[in-house]
Design a protein that fits this description.
Layout lengths: L1 H4 E6 L2 E6 H4 L17 E2 L4 E4 L3 H13 L10 H11 L8 H10 L7 H20 L15
The structure holds zinc ion (ZN).
The site of zinc ion has 4 residues, from helix 5.
Protein name: BTB domain-containing protein
Subcellular location: Membrane
Pfam families: BTB_2
């Protein structure tokens, strides 16, 4: 029965539903080890309750579903890290598309090359695109003369 394979997670008052198999996708994490013996399990409602940030959890669950971890835009870096730590996940797994956002929102003590590099790379790319964009009124890239 499909119902037996499904699981309800109530995170901060928002109910998320997924397959038990989905939560096994990332081993050795809090969600991969859920059992009904845990205090978080409510046998009457047949759901697990966690008093954690529901917005971050949406991305956490998406990570289990897709294998890709994206950074939620509406939270700050330390909060994101705290939530990931609670769920037993590693913030270094954030997808490249979200590196720059994540490193900007991250704490200001950015002294780690891994975090500063994607931001710098992104910035240089933007700058080059801007300079060489023929439609840009401010361009000072190679000038092409018409004959
Ligand atoms: Zn992303």
């Amino acid at each position: 029965m499909d119902g037996e394979n499904r699981i309800i997670l109530n995170v901060g008052g928002i109910r998320y539903e997924t397959y038990k198999a989905t939560l096994k996708k990332i081993p050795a994490t809090r969600l991969s080890r859920l059992t009904e013996a845990l205090a978080n399990y409510d046998p009457i409602l047949n759901e697990y309750f966690f008093d954690r940030h529901p917005g971050v959890f949406a991305q956490v669950l998406n990570y289990y579903r897709t294998g890709k971890l994206h950074y939620p835009t509406n939270v700050c870096g330390p909060l994101f890290e705290e939530e990931l730590e609670f769920w037993g996940l590693d913030s270094n797994q954030v997808e490249p598309c979200c590196w720059s956002t994540y490193s900007i929102h991250r704490d200001t003590q950015v002294n780690n090359y891994i975090y500063i590099y994607p931001t710098l790379h992104h910035f240089i790319n933007r700058l080059l695109k801007y300079l060489y964009d023929p439609l840009s009124p401010h361009r000072f890239g190679p000038i092409i003369y018409r004959t």
